[in-house]
Amino acid sequence: MDRSPYVTESPSVSVIMLKVMLALVPGIVAYVWMFGSGVLISLALASVTALVAEAAMLKVRSRPVMPFLLDGSAMVTAWLLALALPPLAPWWLIVVGTLFAIVVAKQLYGGLGYNPFNPAMVGYAVLLISFPVLMTQWPAPLAIAGAKLSFMDQWNYIFNRVLPGGIGLDAISSATPLDTLKTQLRLQHSMESITSAPLFGQFGGKGGEVVAGAYLLGGLYMWQQRIITWHIPVAFLGALALMSGVAHVVNPEHYAGPLFHLFSGASMLCAFFIATDPISGPTTPRGKLIFAAAIGVLTWLVRVYGGYPDGVAFAVLLLNICVPLIDANTQPRVFGHPK
Amino acid sequence: MSQGTNQYQEIVQNGLWRQNPGVVQLLGLCPTLAVTTSVVNGFSLGLLTALVMAASNASVSPVRRWVPSEIRIPVFILIIAALVTVGDLAMHAYLHALHLVLGIFIPLIVTNCIVLARVEAFAAKNNTAPSALDGLMMGLGLALVLAILGGIREVIGKGTLFSGIDLALGPAAKQFVITVVPHYQGFLLAVLPPGAFMGLALLVATRNWLEQRRQAKAGNASSAPVDTAMAHGH
User: In this complex, is the C-beta atom of A130 within 8 Å of any C-beta atom belonging to chain B?
Assistant: First the structure.
């Protein structure tokens, strides 16, 4: 007969990171299926850059290279950044973003376990602020794209900025649904006419909603494997749904509904993979709820009132700063100690 | 207090390296962060600050015995403000284009901590000649940091060096503008305020690293602690 307490072996960083990458696979498959294989090139490019940068920085900092390189944390950062970037971005954009994430946001702050900011989101924010035009060139969903690019065509475009003859950039790229919704609403178009455009799908963007669904699946796998707890995804998605739901009920002509917000942009990626970063996030359960709910509210505010189409990166970075405060004020009472 | 050359040497060393206002005392951060989008902007404001500092230190030192200590701060500020106004008007008259670019940051030299700090900490306690040298050297130390930070941000942000030099030296100087990276896309972050903070942080780190190496080489690592940067004010 078993008697508590049990001694359990906590999984190593490598195992956790491998499972996170595994959980990302459905999302990547859906991405390739819906938007083409270009994302595989950015994933590979970001991974190679991240590993080289990580190794170089560990060497400079006289830390053991192989153990830290093999823990997989740099790869996860690279994958999250690559999935957040437009897959048709030029190669140097991905390299610059990854270098910033690994060298500045992670290693300069002390490496794995010491970075106060989510490295992937730092890389993303740097690129978004520095190269706003390139960061809005998203591929159109294959279902409505004017032309289809082969893998080699996409390779050529990423590395040489050359498109095959006769195909213009407009044929293969489009604004994201979040971006379209924002600009069209400012032009006084009605919600119905905007969302009936071919770019929009059942409840999110065409293609994008499938990818978001796949991220959700991967996220549930991570929850089942106890890599993440329910607090952050539920609080983030709940806050986002609540904000957009209330606004939608008050004025459905001006505010998109909760399903659109949950399945657009980086919502699902943020809920399960970005906000759940154990290093830059809070450690207490109550703290996680506050942290993720605030990210959800901020994300919605930026999407609806801000200058950028999506607000996930800025919301996560802003809340990363608040983590020490949140942690200090949400410490659970130790059993037997007075309040 | 010895008035030998030793004291003057120490003043020069303190201003340019050991107590550098930009990367050790972290005083005068307002212009450091705001105008260092190019070498020319950074260095010209730094140079003007250095002249003001030399003049204000030289003006305060001779009258220090007659200023009641209770009202010394307003008196010092009035002297500094008068000198900054002279510099501001002179620049307006002779370097109008550059004056337009630097704008509000020229009159703001009055409120720059480093100017009052040197008046209060040095000129109010020392003779005129060392005071003037201290003001000049501290100012040049700051100007140097502004120029280097401006250079870093200009190269990374715009891919050029010395852009806008024609504003300071006349249209003929346009040929001195160096295009470091041709057909550069521009890296906006370096020109935006975060670039200033990151650039300054890298300069502070580089200075600390060089100082640590120097001390380790000198073999007195145990004796004197490194004068590392400490934040004081704006």
Answer: yes
